[in-house]
Amino acid sequence: MNYISRAIYTDRRMATRFDGRGLMANVGGILVDVHDISIGGVKVARMITPPTKPTVIVLYRRDGNRIDLNGAVSVTGSVVYADIAAIHFRFETATFALSKLIVAHASKQLGVTPYSVR
Hints:
The protein is of the alpha+beta class. The protein has helices at residues 3-10, 96-110, and strands at residues 18-19, 23-27, 30-37, 41-45, 55-63, 66-82, 86-91. The protein has a six-stranded antiparallel barrel with strand order 2-3-4-7-6-5. It is globular, with a radius of gyration of 15 Å.
């Protein structure tokens, strides 16, 4: 097995995670910072008791102190892990709106134009 196939074999994540700075999430009515995000899930600051059932997570883009309410994306997620600092959610389904939000967010961080989701 060469290096590339070994790296793919041992990687348990199927989607790339991106830094969550610039995103906020509303989980259970509480607005929390996003630590990182991918098309498969999100890690948020632990400000609430982790929900035991699938819950609706509303994601917002943030620019300084302003939150883009018009660009909000709702997705259902289930807790897969929680510690004292963060809660890790797995998304139930990946929608086009969620994909568009993640691509736009990652593109802004990387300094490229998101041509695939105009």
